[in-house]
Amino acid sequence: MSGTLASIGSAITRARNFTLNALFLLAVVLIVVAMLRSCASPGLAERQALVIDPMGIIVDHPSPMP
Q1: 18 burial class (0-12, 13-18, 19+ CB within 10 angstroms)?
Q2: Which residues of 37-66 are buried (b: 16+ CB within 10 A; e: fewer)?
Q3: Up-side HSE of residue 34: CA atoms within 13 Å toward CB?
Q4: Distance separating alpha carbons of residues 44 and 3, to the nearest angstrom
Q5: Between 24 and 60, where is the model more confident?
Q6: CA atoms within 13 A on the CB side of 24
Q7: What pLDDT, on a 0 to 100 scale, did the predictor assign at position 56?
Q8: What does the pLDDT read at residue 63?
Q9: Separation of alpha carbons 22 and 43, rounded Å
Q10: How far apart are CA 29 and CA 35, in angstroms?
Q11: In degrees rounded to 5, what are phi and psi of residue 54?
Q12: With helix as H, strand as E and coil as C, how does the chain read?
C-alpha cells in the first residue's frame, strides 16, 4: 500500500513540476516577445516626411581647436 501511495505522490509531484515549469517558460517567452515588439521602430507611412527643427549653428565638419 505504501508503495502505491509513494508512486502516486511521485506522479503528482512530476505533474506539478512539469506544469509549473511549462507556465514559467510560457511567461518568459511572452515577456521576451513583448520586449522585442516594444523595441520595434515605428515606420513612416507613405507620403509622410520627418521634420527636424534644429537650433543653433549646424556645421558639416568641426573646426579645429586653436
Answers
A1: exposed
A2: eeeeeeeeeeeeeeeeeeeeeeeeeeeeee
A3: 6
A4: 67
A5: 24
A6: 6
A7: 85
A8: 76
A9: 35
A10: 10
A11: -75, 155
A12: CHHHHHHHHHHHHHHHHHHHHHHHHHHHHHHHHHHHHHCCCCCCCCCCCCCCCCCCCCCCCCCCCC
For residue 58, give the C-alpha cell.
549646424
Compute the distance between CA of residue 36 and CA of residue 31 in angstroms, rounded to an integer: 9
Q: What residue has cell string 521576451?
A: 32
pLDDT per position as a tens digit, 18-41:
999 999 999 999 999 998 888 766
The grid cell for 62 is 568641426
